[in-house]
Amino acid sequence: MKIDFFGQSCNENLNDHRFGIIDPRPAETSRVDEGRWLITVENPQRKEIEFVAIDKCFQLRDAAGNEVSLCECLLRYQNNIDFVELKDRDKHWFEGGISQIISTVGIFVNYHDLKQFKRIRAFVGNKRRGQFNISNSAGKQILWKDYGVITFSKQVIEI
Questions:
Q1: Which of 18, 35, 36, 108 is most buried, by CB atoms within 10 Å?
Q2: Mind listing the pLDDT tens digit for each residue in 94-111?
Q3: What is the pLDDT of residue 130?
């Protein structure tokens, strides 16, 4: 079965200068009630962005029939792509989020060529933790070495 991350009903095109991403399952964008935002997207040049909800929009199962854990969404704009995982808890959030991004990117590369993108980033945002130093994360190293993905942990994505 071919998976087209950009041909689903869970996509939205927008060019707002600022918006949030929330996670009512599947993730969605929000322009109101900033207290609910798990991560903020700053887009001062109002670039056209394609928002693609992934988790709970794609129902993927492994060989044993278990649901594959995926990141919340991705943002595609110009020749760039950002994979986004949202967390709202205090413990064990970062490595779990990175694991979900690794899983999603691993599936994504089976159906889409990452070489078409100039910049590939991953964001693990945690509303409770803000920016977090992730310099020694094994998951961060896997994303960079295997896929050329630069990883961040912060509350604001700058387009």
A1: 108
A2: 788 899 999 999 999 999
A3: 61
Bridge partner list, 61:
67
- Which carries the bigger pLDDT value, residue 46 or residue 60? 46
Amino acid at 58: F
Pairwise CA distance, residues 159 & 148, whole Å: 18
Structure tokens at 135: 């310099």
What does the alpha-carbon distance between residue 132 and residue 114 come to, in Å, rounded to a whole number?
Answer: 26
| CB of 31 closer than 8 Å to CB of 16 | yes
Q: How many residues does the chain have?
A: 159
Tokens representing 127 are 């509303």
Phi, psi (deg, nearest 5) at residue 44: -60, -25
Cα separation, 110 vs 2, whole angstroms: 9
∠ CA 21-69-137, nearest 5°, is 80
In this predicted structure, the answer to whether residue 133 has a pLDDT above a threshold of 70 is: no
Match 């896929």 to its residue by tokens.
147
Question: Which tokens sit at 20?
Answer: 């949030």
Specify the pLDDT at position 138.
83
Rounded to whole angstroms, the Cα distance separating 59 from 69 reads 9
The answer to whether the CB of 104 falls within 8 A of the CB of 60 is no
What are residue 42's phi and psi, to 5 degrees? -100, 125
Instruction: Say how many CA atoms lie within 13 Å of 129 toward its Cβ.
Output: 19
